[in-house]
């Protein structure tokens, strides 16, 4: 479903991604792991064109999104993204956060968007908060709204950039549970995370990035029990 071919990204002279190649299959859940500054966020941001790759190709469903003729808005409709700091619209209610883009970008009717929005809120356990404003929610609730909002666009794939890193410890589980349920529905997911237990349990595959290089691309079982590289062994020792 997603094919990365020799993906490079530079910021000026800084080479952040140094030729990443891998595939993500339809329905696959991939955990992206690595030290701070290794290029994990940049990689995700390239997949929905928040960053323009310097070189290489990204194919989504057979379409080269790095091609000049690509409709960036269409790519972003099909690729949902969830950020560490939620990025909810503060002046809209929870339900309005969910209905805004489907109505504005996809031309969905208000009643249809609200129906879908309320269904999604039920799925993430937040039906009772539909008419609240984001500042009345806990961090875990905000992140569940952000996930529901991304799903409201009916994306083909969901990208998560450290979705639980900004949360108090007691709220991490409620967000990971929503993500786990989503994984079980067959959603294609790429998740940058430091939650090793979650990666081990939920991911089909682990990508280990270090210094802009894809150092390991393996099953969680292999990665966590016998990492091939010294760098991954070092990293895991610090994490676990
Ligand atoms: P990670 O998510 O693994 O911590 P990032 O992808 O955020 O890593 O960053 C990788 C490197 O790229 C870092 O050195 C960071 O400072 C740099 N970088 C990221 N975004 C930009 C940017 N917009 N401009 C310049 N440098 C950037
Ligand atoms: Mg990052």
TrEMBL record:
<dbReference type="GO" id="GO:0016887">
    <property type="term" value="F:ATP hydrolysis activity"/>
</dbReference>
<dbReference type="GO" id="GO:0005524">
    <property type="term" value="F:ATP binding"/>
</dbReference>
<protein>
    <submittedName>
        <fullName>L-arginine ABC transporter ATP-binding protein</fullName>
    </submittedName>
</protein>
<dbReference type="Pfam" id="PF00005">
    <property type="entry name" value="ABC_tran"/>
</dbReference>
<dbReference type="GO" id="GO:0015424">
    <property type="term" value="F:ABC-type amino acid transporter activity"/>
</dbReference>
<dbReference type="InterPro" id="IPR050086">
    <property type="entry name" value="MetN_ABC_transporter-like"/>
</dbReference>
<keyword id="KW-0547">Nucleotide-binding</keyword>
<dbReference type="InterPro" id="IPR003439">
    <property type="entry name" value="ABC_transporter-like_ATP-bd"/>
</dbReference>
<dbReference type="InterPro" id="IPR017871">
    <property type="entry name" value="ABC_transporter-like_CS"/>
</dbReference>
<dbReference type="InterPro" id="IPR030679">
    <property type="entry name" value="ABC_ATPase_HisP-typ"/>
</dbReference>
<keyword id="KW-0067">ATP-binding</keyword>
<dbReference type="InterPro" id="IPR003593">
    <property type="entry name" value="AAA+_ATPase"/>
</dbReference>
<feature type="domain" description="ABC transporter">
    <location>
        <begin position="2"/>
        <end position="236"/>
    </location>
</feature>
<keyword id="KW-0813">Transport</keyword>
<dbReference type="InterPro" id="IPR027417">
    <property type="entry name" value="P-loop_NTPase"/>
</dbReference>
């Amino acid at each position: 479903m997603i094919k990365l071919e020799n993906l490079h990204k530079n910021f000026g002279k800084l080479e952040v991604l140094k030729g990443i190649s891998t595939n993500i299959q339809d329905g696959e859940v991939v955990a992206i792991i690595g030290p701070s500054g290794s290029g994990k966020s940049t990689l995700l941001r390239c997949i929905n064109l928040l960053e323009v790759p310097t070189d290489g190709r990204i194919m989504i469903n057979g379409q080269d999104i790095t091609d000049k003729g690509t409709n960036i808005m269409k790519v972003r409709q099909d690729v949902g993204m969830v950020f560490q700091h939620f990025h909810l619209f503060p002046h809209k209610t929870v339900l309005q956060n969910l209905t805004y883009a489907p109505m504005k970008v996809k031309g969905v009717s208000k009643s249809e968007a609200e129906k879908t929005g309320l269904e999604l809120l039920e799925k993430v356990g937040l039906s009772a908060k539909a008419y609240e404003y984001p500042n009345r929610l806990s961090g875990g609730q905000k992140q569940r709204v952000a996930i529901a909002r991304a799903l409201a666009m009916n994306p083909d794939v969901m990208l998560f950039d450290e979705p639980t890193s900004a949360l108090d410890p007691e709220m991490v589980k409620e967000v990971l549970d929503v993500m786990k349920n989503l994984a079980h529905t067959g959603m294609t997911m790429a998740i940058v995370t430091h939650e090793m237990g979650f990666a081990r349990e939920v991911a089909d595959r682990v990508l280990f990035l270090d210094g802009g290089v894809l150092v390991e691309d393996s099953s969680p079982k292999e990665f966590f029990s016998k990492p091939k590289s010294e760098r991954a062994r070092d990293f895991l020792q610090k994490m676990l």
